[in-house]
Write a sequence for this structure.
């Protein structure tokens, strides 16, 4: 979700140089940014572990002679980094995640149910605090006004004909996953349409096995797991007519390619500020319950012991929204 902000910022301030520090595998997300954006990828799990690792990382970074530091994450690691940078005299600002408001939004009692500031706006606020205005956000897609290089995916997809629909049935946390037996009903329905090709997105051995099983059962379904890297997946998403996803990374990835996303929401809620960039609020599938949302990230078990928020969403509701 930082991409639309950083891309817009760089275009609006072409004389400035911006450096993005993140995990290495995310580099493709910034590959199409303006030339005044560069990316530094790090391996936090092996190369920069613990406080000593963060200090070593700081010593590497300080060599770049930055004028300011924007902490868009505000977790223990970045708190350490910004402490080191402040000690060296740099201007450092960090994101206000609105944690108190999110606790009120997800509370069991005295719930304050209202739209919170979108996370993209919170990122922009950090740069405003550094004297770098970024308004309005004029980002459309990582591919600008066009789509990605079709040559990167043609061997898997063939020439495009009819409708291409992406389906990403998984998420990091269980509270955000629509029951697989129901999402399979959606895939089964779509596969019966002569003019539709379904592309299944996921990752890891377990998810790959599920998607391969569906491909074997239903015509015109293609799993991309293990067949496309992140760069190619972004290209494919740019050619989809619509993506079906959970409140997950794939919702955000498809949003970065200006593809409409139908998203299914259970324990979480768009009000927390993590809705896909530039997506229409009308494209959500969710039901109103007094207990929703009960979690910001979907990582908490249902305290009612029955995930009614997902159970009451029928496969037909999802199909109708896709259509």
């Amino acid at each position: 979700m930082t991409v639309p902000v950083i891309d817009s910022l760089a275009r609006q301030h072409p004389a400035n140089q911006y450096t993005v520090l993140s995990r290495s595998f995310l580099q493709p997300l910034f590959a199409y940014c303006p030339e005044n954006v560069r990316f530094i990828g790090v391996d936090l799990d092996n190369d920069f572990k613990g406080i000593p690792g963060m200090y070593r990382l700081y010593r590497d970074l300080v060599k770049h002679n930055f004028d300011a530091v924007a902490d868009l994450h505000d977790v223990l690691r970045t708190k350490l980094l910004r402490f080191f940078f402040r000690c060296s005299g740099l201007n450092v600002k960090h994101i206000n995640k609105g944690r108190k408001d999110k606790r009120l939004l997800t509370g069991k009692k005295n719930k304050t149910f209202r739209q919170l500031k979108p996370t993209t706006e919170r990122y922009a606020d950090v740069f405003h605090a550094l004297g770098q205005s970024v308004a309005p956000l004029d980002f459309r897609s990582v591919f600008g006004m066009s789509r990605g290089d079709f040559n990167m995916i043609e061997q898997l997809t063939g020439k495009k004909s009819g409708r291409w629909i992406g389906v990403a049935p998984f998420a990091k946390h269980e509270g955000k996953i629509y029951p697989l037996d129901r999402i399979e009903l959606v895939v089964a329905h779509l596969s019966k349409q002569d003019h539709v090709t379904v592309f299944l997105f996921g990752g890891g051995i377990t998810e790959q096995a599920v998607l391969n099983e569906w491909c074997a059962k239903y015509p015109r379904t293609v799993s991309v797991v293990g067949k496309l890297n992140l760069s190619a997946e972004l290209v494919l998403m740019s050619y989809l007519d619509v993506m079906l996803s959970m409140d997950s990374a794939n919702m955000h990835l498809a949003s970065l390619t200006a593809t409409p996303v139908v998203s299914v929401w259970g324990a979480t809620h768009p009000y927390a500020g993590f809705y896909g960039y530039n997506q229409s609020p009308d494209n959500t599938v969710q039901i109103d319950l007094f207990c929703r949302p009960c979690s910001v990230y979907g990582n908490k078990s249902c305290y009612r012991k029955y995930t009614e928020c997902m159970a009451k969403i029928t496969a037909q509701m999802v199909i109708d929204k896709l259509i």
